[in-house]
Amino acid sequence: MAIDKDKLRDFAGKKETMNLRGDEEDMDEVEVGEEMTEDEIVAEVEAEYEAGGLEDEIELTEGYDPEVDGNPAEWVADEAIWERAKKAVEGKMDKYDTPWAVVVAIYSRMGGSFK
User: Fold this and answer.
1) Which pLDDT does position 107 carry in this prediction?
2) What is d(CA 36, CA 39) in angstroms, rounded to the nearest whole number?
3) Three-class SS of residue 50?
């Protein structure tokens, strides 16, 4: 089942307005230009997932099947970042009920964008 284009537009719009390090409350604690390492991004996403977060990513990837929809999917704008995001959770996909939500969260926090 393909991802709903309206959900994708809503998700991409939300991500464009968010600080990559967190919500507005955290913005004062982050220096301009500060970047997270891949390990920090993965740890942050995993912690958020385990705490019951990633609702937008879960909703976006509901029904996503890489064998049917492509891998990367047509809505992935940067295949190299997508591959890095997948590699970051390689061997852990069975750990998540919604693994593609985790990959999408990591992808977007690594700077990946959506078509």
Assistant:
1) 94
2) 8
3) helix
